[in-house]
Amino acid sequence: MQTVETFRDLQGEVTEWRRYLHENPELDFQEHNTAKFVAEKLASFGINHIETGIAETGIVALIQGEGGDGPTIGLRADMDALPIVEASNKPWSSRNPGVMHACGHDGHTAMLLGAAKYLAATRKFKGSVALIFQPAEEPEFPTGGYKMVQEGIMDRFGISQVYGMHTAPGIEIGKFAICDGPIMGSQDDFDLVVKGKGGHACAPHRTVDPVVIAAQIILGLQTLVSRQTDPTAALVISVTKLKAAQAYNVIPDQVEIGGTVRTLAPALRDFAEKEILACAQGIARGFGADVEFRYLRSVPPTVNNTEETNLSVQAALSLVGAESVDDKMRPRIGAEDFSYMLEARPGAFIFLGNGQTASVHHPAFDFDDEALPYGIGYWVNLVETVLPA
Ligand SMILES: [Zn+2]
Ligand SMILES: [Zn+2]
Q1: Furthest CA-CA distance within the chain
Q2: pTM reported for the whole predicted model
Q3: What's the topology of domain 187-299?
Q4: How far apart are the CA of 26 and the centre of ligand 1, in A?
Q5: Which of 9, 46, 198, 283 has its CA 20 to 30 A from that of 373?
Q6: Which positions ≥6 away from 40 have C-beta within 8 Å?
């Protein structure tokens, strides 16, 4: 196993790649230049099995170890940026106005390339490594991770385990955090239309006022979490959209409500879908109105498997030592589409400290390049841990 010093030699070169990617961000499923950059780099490392155009702009490349036959494990990086106007003031700020790498996916791509360069040169493992560069982690369903799984990458490349990593501002550089079981939440969204009967605002008695009914529904939804869910289970139901009339003197025919549902437990998604409708319908019908309801299932919870979590912890420990690995972190409720790969194969997702930078998705965020050798080292040690030669 290597210590992080081994990967400092790569840091300068990988920093250049990271900053190039940061300057040239691309939105979901439009990562054409990024994919071209990745494929060219992989080829320059002497990797000859590279498949492009998976899920539009995704790439899978295979490196065979020199340690004999063995399984194939997948290492995944995401390549997409966000529709945000950058305010980091770095010399390598986005040259694509309104698009920026605010979630560190430039760092993820650069680190997996760095690991690929090292692994292609050393090959001290058995079996094979499948490098998965996926598009479109950020958007609504269907995301890039979902599409790559749908396009059959697990079977096509014989992948038996998958591993993912995400940068984590707020955790010190050189530290890792992970937990067994659910580590990130799901994301579902919903739309409710309250259908009443509009009219003049001076004569509400001749209407079925959907504004008042919508207000009751919004309050009613608060009780699904506070009064109907086990207090130790994580569930968030947030109403975020509300659209009624555009005039002071009009009671509209209908009010549109929208919101999001986040949870760590797959069963609570079914609960939310059923109970949001039941609550809204019960309230609306009580006042002589009705509702239309749409529940949009998006990203499932990211759930780590025990055996692969232990292997990830071992890999991180071998790189940075016990005091720098938190193996019992509290799960985060944000969503991550690596979950689709974990639904397809066992694996684990880990957080890599990025120091005290702005939070991800903030216009001032910039991946701290000091974290690069730790991310590269984690990938390499993971391969040599899971596939010992
Ligand atoms: Zn993100
Ligand atoms: Zn991200």
Answers
A1: 82
A2: 0.92
A3: Alpha-Beta Plaits (3.30.70)
A4: 13
A5: 46
A6: none
Q: What secondary structure letter does DSSP report for 184? A: E
Could you tell me which residues are beta bridge partners of residue 302? 184
Cβ-based neighbours of 378, under 8 Å, separated by 6 or more: 165, 176, 315, 316, 319, 350, 352
Distance (angstroms) between ligand 2 centre and the Cα of 317 equals 24
Select the CATH number that applies to the domain covering 4-183+301-386 from these four: 3.40.50.300, 3.30.450.40, 3.30.200.20, 3.40.630.10.
Answer: 3.40.630.10
- Per-domain boundaries in the chain: 4-183+301-386, 187-299
Q: How far is the CA of 237 from the centre of ligand 2 (A)?
A: 22
- State yes or no: cis peptide before 142, omega within 30 of 0: yes
CA–centroid distance, residue 185 to ligand 1 (Å) = 13
